[in-house]
Amino acid sequence: MRFFFPLLLLLLGQIATTSATQWRTLDPNNTLLMTLPHGKVVIELAPQFAPKHVAQFKALTQQGLFDHNKFYRVIDGFVAQAGPEARRDRAPNLTMEGEWQPSKTWAFTLVQKEDLFAPQTGFVDGFAVGYDEKDNHAWLTHCPGILAMARGNSPDSASSHFYFTIGQAPRYLDRIMTIFGRVVYGMNHIQAIQRTAVIAGDKTIAPSQYTKIIKMQLMSEVPKEQQIIIEVERTDSNDFKEKLKKRLARKSAFFYKKPPQVLDVCQVPILSRRLK
């Protein structure tokens, strides 16, 4: 037990450090409640970055088209994918919203320069972002727990099928897929979705074993007594910037060998807390 004690102290220190962090409450009109057989998941939508995808996903949710759908493509360390076969009048193909031009006054909190996939990485409104200052283009990154729209080979072929990243960050998909949300509560339930892909020689997973979505709802349309109220850590606060500095420096005695001062944007936890 003594070997884990320094790590415990380190984690407790991180919790204490963030206790005074500023928080923001999620907008229930841009928050989803997904009920799985084994638990509930809360998803923050990002209309500020992908307005068309968010609008269509919300409309499909309100029509109940995601209810009872199964996660039919779940690959360990990669993604969990689901979606209905919706009529084209309900779910037309969407134009890619993989990147945008930020304003000069945007609230971008820098994490790292010369990231492997972007000139800069950072956070905006709690979402991990890649940024090319020279071309003035920004995009959301494929960190674990993001919600993105699936598509065919055509860039503008996304309509109703979606996926969560459940393993290593597949950053090579950045800018060529539209990310429009992120899990803020219940990621353990996302990770527990039944894998459908098996290793060679193992038994095939029958479709009857696939994880089903019991219900998908806008939080604003959930009865008040059943709503889950979540606050998330602000990424534009001085508290958060100080947290990044400490995470980069790794000054704790636990790190008797100091790692390089590199900070992967996908390995910076954005805290959530449940109020109700």
In short:
16% of the residues lie in helices and 25% in strands. It has four helices and 15 strands.
Structural commentary:
An 8-stranded antiparallel sheet has the order 4-5-11-10-12-3-2-13. Strands 6-7-8-9 form a 4-stranded antiparallel sheet, with no helix packed on it. The protein is built from 4 helices and 15 strands. It has helices at residues 5-18, 51-62, 187-191, 238-249; strands spanning 23-25, 31-36, 39-45, 73-74, 79-82, 109-113, 120-124, 127-132, 137-140, 146-149, 162-165, 178-185, 215-218, 230-233, 272-274. Mean pLDDT is 91; it is low at 1-20. The protein has 276 residues and is of the alpha+beta class. The chain has a single domain, classed as Cyclophilin-like (Cyclophilin). It is globular, with a radius of gyration of 19 Å.
Radius of gyration: 19 Å
Strand order of the largest sheet: 4-5-11-10-12-3-2-13
The appropriate CATH architecture is Beta Barrel
Which overall shape is indicated by the principal axes computed on the Cα atoms? Answer: globular
Which sheet architecture does the biggest sheet show?
8 strands, antiparallel
Classify the secondary structure makeup into a structural class.
alpha+beta
Topology:
Layout: H1 5-18, E1 23-25, E2 31-36, E3 39-45, H2 51-62, E4 73-74, E5 79-82, E6 109-113, E7 120-124, E8 127-132, E9 137-140, E10 146-149, E11 162-165, E12 178-185, H3 187-191, E13 215-218, E14 230-233, H4 238-249, E15 272-274
Antiparallel strand pairs: 1-14, 2-3, 2-13, 3-12, 4-5, 5-11, 6-7, 7-8, 8-9, 10-11, 10-12, 14-15
